[in-house]
């Protein structure tokens, strides 16, 4: 006789494990199925984000940013250090230790909250049953009152650049280089491509980023993407737009990448090639033929605003459903769904999901950007404040970038905030909270900010919306 649970979650990434913990906290008997295993054969929790995504990439970004500062930024503070060296294997080992600490931490949280962790590959059957095939091929079936599908996403592979051992790699391989490649090619100038390109550029790689689109970071506010392109070029990232990769050829320890751009056919030779052209929902083997769950034309599971699928009692969250493929979006969906299953009213605000690119400077934004509002015919006003005018940013020798706040011209309600600069990922939370409460630019302008802090740039940008910034000359309003 199969075991019965109130909730069975398939996938233990930032959507699945959070959903499982929340469901258990709400008194529901909960199991979480995860196929990833560690060296000892136990479930390796945390999904892509903790194991080969958000967390390890930030570890490398922080390590290499410190290296960059020590190499090129200490002298301005009067600090002399001689030649700075990076022990790449030690850096990667530290990254792995952080991952182990966090994944082990989830196992501890499961235990503390009473979540049953099941190792194996989960498949949804009809009747809200879940078939689990463990690492040894043993098959069991568990029954559920409700099922939450949270199987995540995988990198998109492209035929012109097939994976090739450790020469042509995706984000996973790029996190484990044991030495600095002299020449590094990156296909894709999105979040992953720019972050991983930055990591190895700081350590001395000659980095060429090939982007098929003609516009750089087209999802960002145009002011921010222009500033980012200028700063990345200054740092030494060679970003080539309109560069469509047509083929690649591995010759020993190097790879020739062929691409076309406005000038015709081109090629470049690199020692490593990272393919970072996006991710796709991972649903292979997730659904039995009679499960009844419907996918859309792009392979995402169809859900409503509360993540319910076409089958009553079956929900789907995170990267396998519509919306941005972001860990925090998946987590919040997991909490919402657990609350709904437990009988509570819950709704998520999809209009205010912040996005971040963890380069240096960081890029962070929430809400609408200028080009979106123009396309929608919305009348708006803009306040902008450069970190170059921030006393705290000057003290930190980190003055690149700005805060841009956009408000409705008539109501003054904040419509969007776009930050490029040091600490942008943390500063954006101020705008998210303000917008969640329907704040006006004036509300932020009337708020007291500690001095001296970089967060004062948000304050000044809000003041600048109506031409009242104190620490820069205001543009004359029409």
Automatic annotation (TrEMBL):
It catalyses: N(6)-[(R)-dihydrolipoyl]-L-lysyl-[protein] + NAD(+) = N(6)-[(R)-lipoyl]-L-lysyl-[protein] + NADH + H(+). InterPro entries: Class-I_Pyr_Nuc-Dis_Oxidored (IPR050151), FAD/NAD-bd_sf (IPR036188), FAD/NAD-binding_dom (IPR023753), FAD/NAD-linked_Rdtase_dimer_sf (IPR016156), Lipoamide_DH (IPR006258), Pyr_nuc-diS_OxRdtase (IPR001100), Pyr_nucl-diS_OxRdtase_dimer (IPR004099), Pyr_OxRdtase_I_AS (IPR012999). GO terms for molecular function: dihydrolipoyl dehydrogenase (NADH) activity; flavin adenine dinucleotide binding. The active site is at 451 (proton acceptor). Its cofactor is FAD. GO terms for biological process: 2-oxoglutarate metabolic process. NAD(+) binds at residues 188-195, 211, 278. It is found in: Cytoplasm. Binds 1 FAD per subunit. FAD binds at residues 58, 122, 319, 325-328. It is an enzyme of class 1 (oxidoreductase). The active site is a redox-active disulfide bond. Belongs to the class-I pyridine nucleotide-disulfide oxidoreductase family. This is Dihydrolipoyl dehydrogenase.
